[in-house]
UniProtKB/TrEMBL annotation:
This is DUF3105 domain-containing protein. InterPro entries: DUF3105. Pfam families: DUF3105 (PF11303). Residues 1-32 are annotated as: Disordered. Residues 1-25 have a biased composition (Low complexity).
Length: 174
């Protein structure tokens, strides 16, 4: 595994981040999946949360989840609701304006067929297409990237799920 800095690190080196016991960072595995190394709160809050990465991979969140039964949102959604969906075992597919339109359409079709997934744009993310699960994240090159299916297989209701089997319906739909 390789240690990398999170997007929120204010500078310094990865080695310096590794030396700091309280530093929250990602550790990247050989498969390209970044695993969050740090505490992810699970409190229900009704205020905004300042997440250390965008899109977030966990932490305190709104008491109401976003519907994540293959739901595709064309507008940005509230991070705190989406994080609650991740707690339920969902994978959140996000994209920014740099993502290829054909890839966005193909990803939407895949998400619509996959329970415990949701998709939305996130303008502030650093890569065109990203996949997030509770405590895990990776970038994919497009809808035909084999890492997409591997991420879905491992993380949709995967062992990282804090609340396996929790609902992905009857939450927010916008």
């Amino acid at each position: 595994m390789v240690l990398v800095q999170s997007q929120s690190d204010g500078g310094g080196t990865a080695a310096a981040a590794a030396e700091s016991e309280s530093s929250d960072t990602f550790v990247t595995g050989d498969d390209g999946v970044r695993k969050w190394e740090g505490e992810l709160g699970r409190n229900h809050v009704t205020k905004a949360v300042d997440y250390p990465v965008s899109p977030p991979v966990g932490g305190d969140h709104n008491p109401v989840w976003m519907n994540c039964n293959g739901d595709v949102y064309t507008d940005e959604i509230n991070d705190t609701n989406a994080v609650h969906s991740l707690e339920h075992g969902a994978v959140w597919v996000t994209y920014n304006a740099s993502a290829d339109e054909a890839d966005v359409d193909a990803l939407a079709a895949k998400v619509k067929k996959t329970p415990y997934t949701l998709m939305s744009p996130v303008d502030g993310q650093k890569d065109p297409i990203m996949l997030s699960a509770w405590g895990h994240q990776r970038t994919v090159s497009g809808a035909d990237d084999p890492a997409l299916d591997a991420f879905f297989e491992k993380f949709v209701q995967g062992e990282q799920t804090p609340e396996p089997g929790a609902a992905c319906t009857n939450g927010l739909s916008r």
